[in-house]
Write a structure and sequence with these properties.
4 strands; 81 residues; 3 helices; single chain; alpha+beta; Glutaredoxin; globular; four-stranded mixed β-sheet
């Protein structure tokens, strides 16, 4: 399952969620302001920054603030799309 690390106020997150919904791509949302461990993960893959949206894929790879095209391409490369 695709995991999106987000915040409630992030406009980029809301846009990507809408795009994922339109494409029928399943994902779980974790609010990094409510889950300190997820904030630590986001910082670990973003040079110490809490940059959202950060997506984590089943293989453990991550993309930060990706376009829907980048997400679909990455999922296809994993054989998940």
């Amino acid at each position: 399952m695709l995991t999106m690390y987000s915040t409630s106020w992030c406009g980029y997150c809301h846009r990507l969620k809408s795009q994922l919904d339109r494409e029928g791509i399943a994902y779980e949302v974790i609010d990094i302001e409510r889950d300190p461990a997820s904030a630590d993960y986001v910082m670990s893959v973003n040079g110490g920054n809490q940059t959202v949206p950060t997506l984590r894929f089943d293989d453990g790879t991550a993309l930060t603030n990706p376009s829907i095209t980048q997400v679909k391409t990455h999922l296809a490369s994993l054989g998940a799309a």
